[in-house]
Amino acid sequence: MMSRTSRFAALFAGLFLAFSMVAIDHAEARRGGSFGSRGTRTFQSAPPTRTAPAPTAPVERSMTPNTGVNSAARQPQAGLQRPGFMSGFGGTMMRGLLIGGLIGLLLGQGFGGLAGMFGFLLQALLIGGTIMLAIRFFRSQSAQGPAPALAGAGNAQASRFENRAAAQQQASSFAIPGFGGGSGGGSPADVSEEITLAQSDLDAFQKLLTDVQEAFGREDHAALRRATTPEMVSYLSEELADNAQKGLRNEVSDITLLQADIAESWREDDRDYATAALRYESRDVMRERASGKVVEGDENHPTETTELWTFTRQNGSNWKLSAIQQA
């Protein structure tokens, strides 16, 4: 009976592993994931918008070095508590005195017996309590001193937030078919400058959505170089080469923008960035190169996709796609 059970378990595990490997290979054959560069905000989550209200994961694959410190490391750890009376140097001293007193008591000397030991402990507690009260008094006095300066800093910070919100509101007020309003700017600690977009910028984003998708479907590397950054060209060309090695071709056509809005737009030195949430539909199918047979997707029914595209330009040049994030 145990032998049959063991054989059945081994067979089930083998089948599960085989199907898992097939599923992984199938998933990697399709375009997806979050890759590219968003400047200093590459590893930050883009603000939610009406088009993409759910939190978006940061870019997973990028040539931009992640030099930022983990936010969890900058936050005070919940498990760490303020040192108490029996911790630190005072605690070490008290523990030493108690241990010495106990040893002396056991040896019949030291504090002069049990009553002497309790008397000493009472004195130590009174002295320690007086010291703690003095420390708390000085801390409260020092905390009350700079309060006006902190309040002024808080007002200045709130003013900056209002200015950023006003700038972003103006940036997202341009309306073209499919484009709505964004929901905010960057991180409060971000030192980059928020910028305002014009109607021509939004038109360029909408055109790039179609140009990049169609160039990818045609496997047109020259068109991809004109519409995307060198980093994005490398990622997209890698996917095209991988499909070709598997004897497949990913065709994308009939791209229609359904809804879009600006998540954030900013400037870093001489380079501008803008992240837009795009919801669009397209006919996205995978074909066999030799026979033209559709092996994935439906060429008769378009599919709907929501992604965050980041565009960049340098010194006022043409916008190019620099990152794609899955919403």
Automatic annotation (TrEMBL):
SMART domains: Tim44 (SM00978). The keyword Nucleotide-binding does not apply. Keywords: Membrane, Signal, Transmembrane, Transmembrane helix. Gene3D superfamilies: 3.10.450.240. Residues 33-84 are annotated as: Disordered. Residues 1-23 form the signal peptide. Residues 37-58 have a biased composition (Low complexity). The chain crosses the membrane at residues 85-107, 114-138. It comes from the Bacteria. InterPro entries: NTF2-like_dom_sf (IPR032710), Tim44-like_dom (IPR007379). Residues 63-74 have a biased composition (Polar residues). This is Uncharacterized protein. The lineage of its organism: Bacteria, Pseudomonadati, Pseudomonadota, Alphaproteobacteria, Hyphomicrobiales.
